[in-house]
Amino acid sequence: MRERRANDEFRLLDNRRRAKSHKAERQNNEFKTQENERRAEALKISRENDGFKTEDNKRRAEAHKIERQSDEFKTQDNKRRAEAHKIERQSDEFKTQDNKRRAEAHKIERQNDEFKEEERRRNALRMYNSRDKYKNNFDAMKSNYESDIKEGPTHICSCCGGLWFAYSIREYTVEMLAKKGLKKEFIDTVCYLKHEIIELCATCRKDIMSNKIPNLALSNGLAFYEIPDCLKILIESEERLISPRIPFMVIRTLGFSKQFGLKGNLVNVPMNVDTNVSILPRSFSDTYTIQLKLMRQMKNKNAFMYETIRPKVVHTAVKYLVQQELYKDEGIVISNDWIKEYPNEKENFIVKNDDKKFNETENTGEDSDHDDNWNESDDKPINPVVTETLLNDEIEDQNDIGIKFAPGENNRPISILMDLKVDELTFPKIYCGKQRKIKENVKLTYAKIAKSELRMFDRRCGRVSKLFFTYKKLQTRKFVDAISINLRKTKNTKNVTVTQMLNRDYVNGLVHNDNAFAFLRFDRSSPAFWELKKKELMAMNRQLECATIFLTLSAAETQWSELLVILTKVLENKVITLEEAQNLSYEKRCELIRQDSVTCVRYFEHKLKCLWEILSAPCGPFQGYELVDKYVRTEFQVRGSPHVHALLWLKNAPKYDKNNPESIEKCVEFIDKLISVSSQPTEFSEVLISLQRHKHSHTCKQHVNGCIICRFGIPYFPMSKTMILEPFSDDEKLSKKERDEISKSRQNVKEELDRISKDKDTSLTFEEFLKKINMNEEQYIKMIRAGLKKAQVFLKRAPNETRINAYNPMIMSLHRANMDIQYILDPYACLKYCVEYINKSENGMSKLLREALNELKKGNHTVKERLRVIANKFLNSSEISAQEAVYHILSIPLSVSSRSTVFINTNRPENRISMLKSDEILQKLEPDSKDVFVEGLIDMYINRPDEMKDVCLADFASLYNVSKRKVDNAPIAENSDDEDVTENENNEKITAFKMKNGKGWIKKKTKKKIIRYRYFKLHQDPENYYREQLMLFLPWSNEEEDLLSINHEETFELHKDLIQEKRSEYVHREANEFEKAFEEHMEREDENDIEDTNIEYDQDKNEFLIYEIGNNEGDIFVEMGLKTQTEKVENFNVPKVIPDTEYQQMMRSLNNNQRRYTLNVMKLIKNGDKQFFHFINGGAGVGKSTLIKAIYQSILRFYNSLPGCNPETIRTALCAPTGKAAALIDGMTLH
């Protein structure tokens, strides 16, 4: 057989015969099974040979590779493998081993940088696609939003004890942390709160995973002591009697919901506890009570606090406190004489709650007595008698048995900054008479401790008196620092050395920055801060074009059931349903809101964050018009709650052009798509519409020409369709008769609208309304246009919708609170929103501070004295609500921008303000070093590397970041407001360039910053205008050679095309219209001299009704530990005479012709007594006002130099025909 199989032909036929026979045999299942077992056994024996095994695997792999080239086979094979793997992974042991094998294999693969980068790219792409899909699904986003807003700061971090939202918390067990390499002892230390499940916030988690104890860990000494029962039951006035410090503050209730507000400063006065308690009766039972009036001074008419107290409670509490270490260290002891009992001859008198009810007419001002019909608000008044406050509402004396006592009389106030234990001594109920003991190696500022206390799960520091105390202490600290920093700012002085700068006398002789108003910018509640924000916003409009939409969103705490559920859980540790929250009484809702302003603020910010995500999504309310940029400002209403004003820039939104019918049609279509005033919504209930329906109150009441009107112009005019109306053009001028007729018709229409608007259920149609006022639509439109000064949008509105504010249905259904939305027609309208809303609430304070500053300039005061006066004026006059105080303490931004802003100081070098380095830094430098000023933006530009030599200053400021280290993601050192929240740009592929002086690294951004600069005007100062254009938009290296020692106009003309091309990137084509609108606004403001009664700030001032409680003003110099005594001898300037330095500087600034003319006038006055008339003429900006002031000051100095002259005698008068002209020369109008 062997010989025959050697024949190839025979072997082939024999193999075929055998295969056919074998195939027939394998149809028998028994035979097939036995053969498979035999083959497997034989193969198993063969594979024990490593050589055979390798060859067999190789053969199999090759065969499988060929088979998998068939898509059908590949699909079936994958399916089979997946099914087999799924069955195998049901075994926990296999699953564990498989995961371990995969992790190990993945770890090895990730050692390859190429694989790592590819994996990162795939993950980013997957997340982007998933996110993009989510953002295009409104139902999914809405469902997620509704779920998110049910979350509140209710999760407790086991390390810092803070309350956090769910997204900030990660859950662990001890075993999980141990697997991450943390020791058991370390875990026990950092996890102060012991629970089976460890919850860690983001900040603590980051430090703990790095094996570090977080600074704010409770184990560092931040945990509160447990409050003993004898202190728990203390009310505010009882606590004041037993505390060694009393913080005099004016705290008032605001609006109907009775949230709290603070007026003025805090004065920290030491008290004698023994004296305080000794005034109480010496015989009392457990239930004995007595009325106590705490006075600031005994001569004052009204009490600082007036409450019913319990002597037994005070006695028990003080006995506990004097045994504590803090009271012993302070030497506080209590005499036992007052405890000795003797017969009590006084009758126990208890004030009923009804007798202490709040007098509702007290805070409404005199107008409320005469115009009761005006106020239509249906908010329920609340009786705040059960609240803790440092200044209760005054009531009339009811019985002579009560005690009247001034515990701080004749005691000198002490600095809250230098009083190191002031918190513990002021609030024994919070700190239990014990001092906070922070570990020595832990560096914590008071600001960080304050944040920790406010976020703590133990809500004891959320009480209003502690909240305002903390805010004032932080504010005072900031003022002290700001004054110190401001005194380091000086005009740019060349060639000064370290030795000179360390000489105090030399430094004091320098020309310091004298802008005492601007130094307040560090305080986010100051007018100076919002003045800066207004400038930044105007620069944003100048660079990006005018915004598209103005949006306002308010808070509705009492209407948000989700917030009430959260407050109940945080304050009462009680879980209620949304339905139960909706059924809470109005009084209970207000009480919850008053008790925890911190949670209210954090929830409002959380809700807005969730809402902005939808507003920015393609499927959101602006679908089709991408939200590309925004500016948001948070301000506070009269009732103390926050609301936000936002300017939004939408991509591809239509622009209004009154001369283009197609533009008008597109704008109207756009407005109708986004804005509604319908009273019959399909997406939400009448309850939400009621939030949009305006009700007159004292805050909207305005007196004009003897009539009372709504300052919001409500009721609005009904319209058959949305229209954009323009005022009459010059060609359409009306005759006097027509104007009189229209005025009369307008008055009749207003009266009719007032009647109709009170009936929200009226079914009157627009056509019926026109019949009622006896007009056709053409006459009606003509009447409306006659009252316009600028183009204005009038929304489609039925007669029963004349009081409904504009809203967007989608935003309203999500936010469920009052809102407003307006389409911005043109730069004039945009400017109105910038000016009236970004800085509106600070007008009154701004005026107060500027008046004080103007008074200071008339005297011979040092810069330090001016700063002191301005700081005290602000601190003693500012007003703030509890929720606003929370924003400041927790450092929550009050202004948010999609782009940061940078200021480029384009003044000449000698007029720039520079900051001196601190003495600590100067002492480390060489004595003859001239590197004494902090490096600024222009210094950085000069030191840019050669690779950036063609980059202009505008691009450098806008497109580049400067950091001290090359490390990616390093903190960026920008000359911009750290408050603006911008996009996170971390592009690792961007090259970092080293600065020439080696002091930092420069890295390019992907999104431009907004640039601000001096903005010289061509018609006012052509030389500086051209120099500024060259400085910003043309590259340069040496300022002296490239910018100062050249002919600016000729150089500008030479590079005009290049400069204008680059300028167009930073100055939009609408910028000129915007600037024109701003100049017109400033002219109107000067001419009208706006009265404070038309400003919301002053309209609402009665909500902070101030009682005469004596001198409650603080002094910033006391806090700084500086001398405050008045000098026996001081210099002063005679009336209207400016200081000699200013006069000399003014005379030096005159050109040759001005100087010769001034000398000629003085010669005429000195040498003759004849009357003469001169006429000074010239274009805008040539120096007429400066010349007049110089002559005026010269004349004053001449007459004051004459022997026997009385400086107060008026010898010279500056007059002008208009208020604006008079203001320019510091004169008076001709009356």
UniProtKB/TrEMBL annotation:
InterPro entries: DUF6570 (IPR046700), Helitron_helicase-like (IPR025476), P-loop_NTPase (IPR027417), PIF1_helicase (IPR051055). Residues 519-648 form the Helitron helicase-like domain. Residues 211-339 form the DUF6570 domain. It comes from the Eukaryota. PANTHER family: ATP-DEPENDENT DNA HELICASE. Residues 1-121, 353-380 are annotated as: Disordered. Residues 371-380 have a biased composition (Basic and acidic residues). This is DNA helicase.
